[in-house]
Amino acid sequence: MTALQACLNYLDVNEVRYTHTTHPVAYTAREVAAAEFMPPHRIAKTVVFCDGSEYLLVVVPADTYVDIEQVRAAVGSRELRKAVEDEVLELFPQAEVGAMPPLSALAKVPVYLDRALANEEFIAFTAGTHRDVVHMKTGDFRHLSQPVIGDFSRPDLWDEPLAAGF
């Protein structure tokens, strides 16, 4: 079963209302936002982290970066690091790298959800491929994944307007 099918089946079994959309191939969360005609702060970007032999998913808006120090503080570990590609493939063997759905049950790992997304009415995320996106109520996402909610992102400075005189 593909990661997309596992994701959709999981939502169906849990009787969650969602919309599944497809778009041309998009590799970054920003590209997904553009392909979905959505502002990047409303698209979820999933990043896999490793703490020893334990993994976790950090979900932040597409127009931000993960603030690893905030995640380390929430996890209580100085050893936390971003997972390498082989580790991601082990957790999500049927998903395309970079398109992992942030549903905790699919990888059986905890989810850390940035407060900016937690406060949105809807959440949208890649569903196992670089072409498929699931849109659902954030409340349903929170109910299913039971995420730790916190301030886990920092702005992408390339998005900030240049200071006067520069």
Please give the alpha-carbon distance between the first and last residues: 52 Å
Q: How is the main sheet built?
A: 5 strands, mixed
The CATH homologous superfamily is called YbaK/aminoacyl-tRNA synthetase-associated domain
Q: How many distinct domains? A: 1
Query: Which residues sit in consecutive blocks of at least 5 with pLDDT less than 50?
Result: 159-166
SSE string, helix = H, strand = E? HEHEEEHEHHEHEEHEE
Mean pLDDT: 90
Rg from Cα: 15 Å
Percent in strands: 25-35%
CATH architecture title: Alpha-Beta Complex
Total count of helical runs of at least 4 residues: 7
Q: Would you kindly provide a written description of the structure presented here, covering whatever features stand out?
A:
- It is a single chain.
- The strands form three sheets. A five-stranded mixed sheet has the order 5-2-3-6-9.
- It is globular and about 40 Å long.
- The chain is 30% helix and 28% strand.
- It has seven helices and ten strands.
- The protein is an alpha+beta fold.
- The N and C termini lie far apart (52 Å).
- Residues 159-166 have low confidence and may be disordered.
- It has one domain (3-155): Alpha-Beta Complex (YbaK protein), CATH 3.90.960.10.
- It has helices at 3-13, 29-35, 68-75, 85-91, 104-107, 115-118, 138-145; strands spanning 18-22, 44-51, 54-61, 64-66, 81-82, 111-114, 122-126, 132-137, 148-150, 153-155.
